[in-house]
Write a structure and sequence with these properties.
mainly alpha, single chain, 83% helix
């Protein structure tokens, strides 16, 4: 099951805001702040990529969500 459009839009908006925060932090904050913001951005990107991967696996096996993990 793919992420809903509203979730994808919210993730995109969050990533955009975090990019802006990272740009400001790079000029004025300690490196730990920049590292933390970058880590959050990476985790948001991972959510979308994992969802795409699971959709591909489900399509390849022809199974629905209930059967995919052996339930």
């Amino acid at each position: 099951m793919a992420l809903s459009q509203s979730v994808l839009e919210a993730i995109d908006e969050a990533q955009s805001n975090l990019r802006n925060a990272l740009a400001y932090a790079a000029r004025n904050e300690r490196p730990m702040v920049c590292s933390s913001i970058a880590e959050i951005m990476s985790k948001l990107e991972t959510i979308a990529k994992y969802d795409e991967l699971f959709d591909s696996l489900e399509n390849a096996t022809g199974k629905n969500n209930d059967d995919f993990f052996g339930n």
